[in-house]
Amino acid sequence: MTQLAERLSRISEPETIKMAKLTRELKAKGIDIVDLSIGEPDFDTPPHIREAAKKAIDEGFTHYTPVAGYADLRQAVVHKLKRDNNLEYAPEQIIVSTGAKQSIANAVLSIVDPGDEVIIPTPYWVTYSELVKLCQGEVKFVPCSIENKYKITPDQLEAAITPKTKLFMFSSPCNPTGAVYSKEELAALAEVFARHPQIFIIADEIYEYINYVGKHESIAQFGDLKERTVLINGLSKGFAMTGWRLGYLAAPTALAKAADKIQSQFTSATCSITQRAAITALTGDLSSAMAMVAAFKKRRAFIYGALSNITGLKVIEPEGAFYMFPDVSAFFGKSFEGATINNADDLCMYLLHKAHLSVVTGAAFQQRNCIRISYANSMEKLEEGMKRMAQGLGQLQ
Ligand code: PMP
Question: CA 20 to 30 Å from 121, out of 31, 56, 179, 245?
Answer without folding.
Answer: 245
